[in-house]
Design goal:
This protein is an alpha/beta fold. The protein contains 3 helices and 7 strands.
């Protein structure tokens, strides 16, 4: 049995919106493109037809992937607690250089490190889970150890 996939409410809504767009807009448009390019004749030299078939393959596999995610998805409770959980925003201070950073803990499919959204399954995410303001913790990364202090959990 496959394990649950924890997502934030916002993350699940974003995936549902993507699914709706694929099923209701992109799939019908792609089918029409295949139909119209097929009518142009010789399929062996019809680049538009082959591109549309490739796009169809991508659309169908993404729809299937999203539907599998929905079967396994569990929404994080979102209840306000004083300890870090999925959906929490955490203000950290680096023990080494006193820099402050805010991370949001999200499900693996929602992770976006560029926007400081980190998976609860990542090394930093695992290190944060269950911690409270004032806690110090260390995580092991390829370049060594990183030490942080949790300043705030939102």
């Amino acid at each position: 049995m496959k394990e649950d996939l924890i997502l934030t409410k916002e993350g699940l809504e974003k995936l549902k919106k993507e699914h709706t767009e694929l099923v209701d807009i992109k799939r019908p448009k792609n089918i029409e493109t295949i139909r119209s390019t097929r009518a142009m004749g010789d399929l062996s030299e019809n680049g538009g037809y082959h591109a549309a078939r490739d796009e169809q393959s991508f659309i169908e596999s993404r729809i299937q992937e999203l539907e599998e995610i929905f079967k396994r998805a569990k929404v994080a409770s979102g209840t306000k607690t004083k300890s870090v959980s999925v959906g929490s925003k955490v203000v950290l201070e680096s023990y080494q250089n006193k820099d402050k950073v805010i991370y949001e803990l999200v499900g693996a499919t929602e992770a976006d490190p560029v926007n400081n959204k980190i998976s609860y399954e990542s090394p930093l995410g695992k290190g944060l889970m269950g911690k409270k303001p004032g806690d110090l913790f260390t995580i092991q990364v390829p370049v060594g150890e990183l030490k942080y202090k949790i300043l705030e959990v939102k």
